[in-house]
Specification:
Blueprint: E1 18-22, H1 29-40, E2 44-48, E3 55-60, E4 63-68, H2 73-83, E5 89-95, H3 103-121, E6 124-127, E7 132-134, E8 154-159, E9 165-171, E10 180-186, H4 192-208, E11 217-218, E12 227-235, E13 242-249
Parallel strand pairs: 10-13
Antiparallel strand pairs: 1-5, 1-6, 2-3, 3-4, 4-5, 6-7, 8-9, 9-10, 11-12, 12-13
Length: about 250
């Protein structure tokens, strides 16, 4: 009997982290490398990604990011409508494959390259996960040794569709391969303390790469109270589905 070999599974398409909208000519790979090495010490290695002159692979150490600038016209026309901007050219920044241990560093390199392309083009970056627009003056420069949770993850608030509650949730943890966090509060209560608590919890989850089970407790001395994981679900506050873990501050 002839044994059929299983066909290899197609790799999942890489998720774009940033779109860069701009006018004029895209920076050359050498220009991006020079900027990056001056800002962050480098060395950044940039090489062609396939046959297209618009596709590059940029590597710093063992961390790799894929760049396409500019995107083909048909993609630009579609994205221009979605993003509600009038930039005639758009580039994309996508992280390369990484292990869970390296994911944070790859995301940092991708963010630095997105910043560089924004500055070099004097254009606008769009953070796909957090749905945030970043002009050149909006980027917060950090040295290689510094990581700020708020640079990569936001805490959002909106009315719950039913139930008369406020819905607080993170956007950005999914960049790092983690579930987003959410919690619900009665409508009308002050929001600032809940947003601060979600930021503190999100920073802890990201730094320790936690995927806590439903029903478990996370000890949070910074909040002077533990946090309980209530349930796991998917939701699409921005149109794209994300996995969420609902939390309650005990």
């Amino acid at each position: 009997m002839r044994i059929r070999k299983k066909a290899p599974k197609a790799s999942a398409p890489r998720q774009v982290l940033y779109f860069i909208g701009y006018r004029g000519t895209a920076p050359a790979p050498d220009e991006l490398k020079t900027w990056y090495d001056l800002e962050y010490g480098g060395p950044l290695v940039v090489r062609a990604d396939g046959d297209s002159p618009a596709s590059w692979v940029a590597s710093h150490g063992g961390w790799t990011v894929h760049l396409v600038i500019p995107l083909p016209d048909d993609q630009v026309n579609q994205l221009a409508d979605q993003l509600a901007w009038d930039h005639p050219s758009i580039g994309a920044v996508t992280p390369g494959q990484s292990t869970p241990a390296d994911r944070l560093d790859v995301i940092l390199v991708a963010a630095r390259l997105a910043r560089g392309l924004t500055l070099l083009t004097q254009g606008t970056a769009f953070d796909v996960t957090t749905q945030t627009y970043l002009n050149p003056s909006d980027w917060q420069d950090r040295p290689l040794s510094v990581f700020r949770f708020a640079d990569h993850v936001t805490v959002q608030q909106q009315d719950e569709a039913t139930g008369g509650r406020d819905w607080f949730y993170t956007l950005g943890l999914s960049k790092f391969g983690l579930d987003e966090l959410e919690t619900f509060r009665p409508r009308g209560l002050a929001a600032a303390s809940t947003i601060d608590a979600m930021r503190t919890l999100g920073d802890e989850v990201l730094r320790k790469r936690l995927l806590p089970k439903v029903g478990s407790l996370i000890d949070m001395p910074e909040l002077s109270r533990p946090v309980r994981i209530l349930r796991h679900r998917t939701a699409a506050p921005t149109g794209a589905h994300h996995a969420f873990r609902e939390v309650a501050f005990e």
